[in-house]
Amino acid sequence: MKVYLSILVLLIQFLPVFGQLDSANRSPYRVYRAYELPASLTVLGASFFGYRQLDRYASFDAGDIAQLDPTRINAFDRPVAYFDPARFEAAQQRSDRFLNLSIASPLLLMLSNRIRHKGLDVLTLYTTAHAVNNLLYFATSFSIRRARPLTYNPAIPVSEKIGNAKSNSFYSGHVSFSTTATFFGAKILTDFYRIRGWKRVAVFSGAAIPPILVGFNRMHAGKHFRTDVLTGFLVGAACGIGIPEIHRIRRKTGQLSLQPTFTFTGQRGIAFRYRF
């Protein structure tokens, strides 16, 4: 973790070498803070209750465990069901640390005077990216009930396989949230400083390291299969890159809009509109 932080600090210090500032000294994004920031914060605040509800919804009892058959797991994912339980606790702690590092890593962008000058816009984009990610995560996790790898593991007693949060394996929220954060930071960095070519590839390659470490440890904690981790990575990357990119396109065209939606039944969402 110390090595990764050092790399980010050095990268920001040497940004003039990597790219050029916008000559107009303007943000590359068009952000509507008046509604995007409070809407995204509302979604993130409500997510706290959503996680608790999801844990209860994803509960297993002894009857559910009895119906599980490891041989029915696809060949790509099956080895994860047999990982050593003795490593679970340490892997869980490592995954949490790497997740926390990832979530906090965009704060290093504030070391840049250019980005710090547009700090509120960046904060709005960051909360919006995570809000959209959370909505996608809940929509998927509540719809798809997949047993966690540990529930298949013959080395684990049934008493540890039952209870809350045992059937919300698909997809990995830890990996998705981590990837959203680090890819968001890479996207902001490369857009503000017009970093292109292999240098841009290098920035995003570095941004992929923390989510990969999160995913590796989530599997060795018995929480997720390989496909859960890969899906979480792709969804997180799409949110971390896609939300700033939508706002960048909107600044250039003025035709694309992103607005929160609310219904009388309490449902929340994000609406994308493109004016032809």
Automatic annotation (TrEMBL):
InterPro entries: PAP2/HPO, PAP2/HPO_sf. Gene3D superfamilies: Phosphatidic acid phosphatase type 2/haloperoxidase. It comes from the Bacteria. SUPFAM superfamilies: Acid phosphatase/Vanadium-dependent haloperoxidase (SSF48317). Residues 124-244 form the Phosphatidic acid phosphatase type 2/haloperoxidase domain. SMART domains: acidPPc. This is Phosphatase PAP2 family protein. It comes from Larkinella punicea.
